[in-house]
Write a structure and sequence with these properties.
This protein has 154 residues and is α+β, with helices and mostly antiparallel strands. The protein has a single domain, classed as Translation Initiation Factor IF3. The chain is built from 3 helices and 3 strands; from the N terminus they run αβααββ. Strand 2 and strand 3 form a beta hairpin.
Length: 154
């Protein structure tokens, strides 16, 4: 009995440590790539700014699936008993949203675009395991890239 408890606590601690390490590494990568793509605005306005000459446009998107770790699932189980914010899942959603936008902006750069307008975000939970618990989330960012005609190469 005591051995099982010790094994549980050790596995929980390992899940916390490795999950935190992976999350921090991902955040560092996100911050670096956001800085590199800072010059590409991604805005939610529905219509593009009026430009002369009229630029080319293209649909661009970025998608990411991020899985929860065991420690987040454990904390979620505890939090569901008493209610309230689930901060461990908030970081999961934040990382996913930022990663999807980075990928959308990178596709814009690859097309020679200068900005993305009318951006939208879609989120989906991917069920995994028993009782349909969330195992991962998918976040999809999409919008319309503006590609100046002097650089268009579609």
């Amino acid at each position: 009995m005591a051995f099982d408890l010790i094994v549980f606590v050790v596995l929980l601690a390992c899940g916390f440590a490795f999950g935190r390490y992976a999350e921090n590494r991902h955040y560092r990568s996100i911050i670096q790539r956001e800085e590199e793509l800072r010059g590409i605005p991604a805005i939610a306005i529905r219509f593009p700014p009026i430009m002369t000459p009229r630029p080319e446009t293209a649909l661009v998107s970025g998608s990411v699936v991020i899985a929860e770790d065991y420690f987040k699932r454990f904390l979620f189980g505890l939090r569901s008993l008493v209610g309230g914010r689930v901060r461990s899942y908030e970081t999961l959603v934040d990382r996913g949203r930022r990663e999807a936008i980075i990928r959308m902006k990178q596709q814009t750069v690859d097309l020679g675009g200068s900005m993305v307008f009318n951006i939208k975000l879609e989120t989906a939970a991917i069920a995994s395991g028993r009782k349909g618990r969330i195992g991962a989330i998918e976040i999809h960012a999409y919008g319309t890239a503006i590609i100046p005609t002097d650089r268009a190469h579609l």
